[in-house]
Write a structure and sequence with these properties.
Blueprint lengths: L2 H15 L9 E5 L3 H8 L3 H21 L4 E8 L7 H21 L3 E5 L7 H14 L6 E8 L1 H19 L3 H7 L2 H5 L12 E4 L18 E4 L9 H13 L7
Parallel strand pairs: 1-2, 1-5, 2-4, 3-4, 5-6
Length: 253
């Protein structure tokens, strides 16, 4: 261990020791950004950057488990990403599939897909479904893997699901207009039944949500971190938690 690692380790323990677990967010959303830029800065390939980003997930979930986080949503592939050139998209999907298999094989997490399955290749769909089925009995952190996910798409899918549900029940348009409110729409989101994210972390220095959990993040706190996702350290995570705990949440006030 070099001196820099030693200093960071001591600092991380100091921050962790002062962390009030009662102030820890129960649901954290993470925009895993910066894999390609990390690879470029490191002299590696895009695929190597995505692989390094996937490898970081298990470490991150371990930190979350240590601090009593209950739900984590990982944005791994957006609907916009599906328009990338095949030579980049196909390897990326393979890396995501491997990461999801690893999450399922770990034995600690409950894996849940959020996104539009129909937009994904059949092989990716199968991996996501199998992971969810294999882990549904687990009691650890609920890990939402956002693959083929877009915030606007989610809201459109929720409204479509709502309309189809009530069409099957024979609800008239007038009756439906009377029924529709925030809670009714929430019941048709990908994350229905889950708490909204308390904290959203985005790595790589970008300071925007890019459509991530548009509906659910209305009252979330945001933490933007300069470091690229593959280089995200425990001390960066603890800083995010410390920053969150120091804020006074006013829920729109």
């Amino acid at each position: 261990m070099n001196l820099r690692d030693l200093v960071y380790g001591l600092y991380a323990r100091r921050v962790e020791g002062r962390l009030d677990h009662d102030q820890v967010p129960k649901h954290i959303g993470v925009i895993l950004d910066g894999n390609r830029r990390w690879a470029k800065a490191s002299g590696g390939t895009t695929a190597q950057g995505h692989r390094a980003g996937a490898d970081k997930i298990a470490e991150f979930l371990g930190w979350c488990a240590e601090t009593d986080v209950e739900v984590v949503t990982l944005w791994m592939l957006s609907t916009d990403n599906l328009a990338r050139p095949e030579e980049e998209l196909i390897p990326l999907l393979g890396i995501i599939e491997d990461a999801v298999r690893d999450l399922a094989a770990d034995g600690r997490w409950r894996v849940h897909h959020v996104g539009t399955l129909d937009l994904l290749p059949a092989g990716t769909q199968s991996v996501l479904k199998e992971a969810e089925q294999a882990t549904q009995g687990n009691t650890g952190i609920l890990v939402n893997v956002a693959v083929g996910y877009g915030g606007r798409q989610e809201i459109a899918d929720a409204v479509r699901s709502l309309l189809l549900d009530h069409a099957q029940k024979g609800t008239t348009f007038e009756e439906l207009a009377e029924l529709v409110d925030i809670d009714v729409i929430s019941e048709h989101l990908y994350t229905r039944g889950q708490p909204d994210p308390d904290l959203v972390i985005r790595t790589s220095g970008e300071q925007r949500l890019s459509g991530f959990m548009l509906w659910q993040s209305a009252h979330s706190e945001y933490y933007f971190c300069e470091v690229f996702w593959p280089a995200f350290r425990k001390v960066d995570f603890l800083r995010a938690l410390r920053d969150y705990a120091a804020r006074h949440r006013r829920y729109g006030g």
